[in-house]
Amino acid sequence: MRIANLANRAVLVVDGEGGTTAVDVDEASAGRFGPAPRAVFEEWDAFTEWAASADLGDGRPFDPAELGAPVPDPRQVFAIGLNYRDHADEANLEHPEHLVVFTKFASSLAGPNVTVTLPSDKVDYEIELVVVIGREVHDADLDASRQAIAGYAVGQDYSERAVQLRGPAPQFSLGKSYPNFAPFGPAVVTEDELDDPGKLRLTAVLEGPGADGAPSVTLQSGTTADLIFPVEQIISDLSRIVTLYPGDVIFTGTPAGVGGPRGLFLKAGDVLTSTIEGVGSMTNRFVSP
User: Fold this and answer.
1) Is the dihedral of CA 175, 178, 181, 182 positive or negative?
2) Structure pTM?
3) What are phi and psi of 74, to 5 degrees?
4) Which residues contact 63 (CB under 8 A, 6 or more apart)?
5) Worst-scoring range by mean pLDDT, 54-58, 96-100, 270-274?
6) Hydrolase: present as a keyword of the record (predicted)?
7) What are the backbone dihedrals phi and psi of residue 11, each rounded to the nearest 5 degrees, phi first?
């Protein structure tokens, strides 16, 4: 399944002879699920059982620009730092022995194709695989953690590095939580749609002034096989301390190629397309205040 948020209503995105359409979950289930996007994750087992045999009909065409964050109001948003070997290496930091965790405040969440206003000339990019939780878990082993995954989405962890790194102590969560600094989507994709979530290719391609005269530049290209803490390990380790709830969102880290280590930051007029193999793509445009 591919579960999305269209006009703040839960929809299933389906491919048919007439192209890609959206099926309204509340209407198709006669009010059993939805319309709130988070509702399908709060009743995940019942929802997946229904969806497996439901007659979804034809749906309706839609503009991808209409898509919102698949879960616009999670109870918790987690983000994991230094979780790709090559990214830790480019930062000249040791590979962590434990999760490096911060949050992106909920007001920074956005749909996949939003325009981002740059608050300064120090805004960086980080393509990430985003995980949405489908079952409440606490103190979970790896198997229970794997079973708690509802699906995956494409995300960007935009960061204003001056705020993030200012003293006397770093302010990761503030520097990463300006409006539209946590776009994700285009849909939450269930594991049965993917060949292997542990071997997904992530790419971030830049067009515009930051491409320095080239038609486009690939800024990041990595694979989830390079994760230091795989997704089920992230969930398990988090759950040793906190309780994870249905609809919670986890940004799982970024591969090498971020701008900070090479002095490359986003500029007004830039267009960044972030793609994860099998999961989807999203495009963000950047403007001055």
Assistant:
1) positive
2) 0.97
3) -65, 150
4) none
5) 54-58
6) yes
7) -135, 155
- Largest Cα–Cα separation, the chain: 58
Per the DSSP assignment, residues forming a β-bridge with 287 are 117
Q: Sheet holding 115-117: strands in order across?
A: 115-117, 280-287, 271-276, 201-207, 217-223
Q: Which of 104, 113, 129, 109 is nearest to 188 (CA)?
A: 129
DSSP state of 244: B
The alpha carbon of residue 18 and the mean position of all alpha carbons in its chain are separated, in whole angstroms, by 28
Amino acid of residue 116 = V
pLDDT of residue 15: 86
SS3 of 179-243: the string is: CCCEEEEEEEECHHHCCCHHHCEEEEEEECHHHCCCCCEEEEEEEHHHECCCHHHHHHHHHCCCC
- Tell me, what's the pLDDT at 256? 96
Written as six digits, the tokens of 52 are 């497996």
The full length of the chain comes to 289
Q: Does the structure show a pLDDT above 90 at 251?
A: yes
Rg (the chain; Cα; Å)? 18
Which strand (E) or helix (H) includes residue 39? helix 39-42
Structure token pair of residue 35 = 């319309």
* Domain annotation for the chain: domains and CATH numbers: 2-62 (no CATH), 71-287 (3.90.850.10)
Kindly report, residue by residue over 140-170, the tens digit of the pLDDT. 999 999 999 999 999 999 999 999 999 899 9
15-19, 20-24, 35-39, 149-153: segment of lowest average pLDDT: 15-19
Residue 188 CA to chain centroid, in angstroms? 9
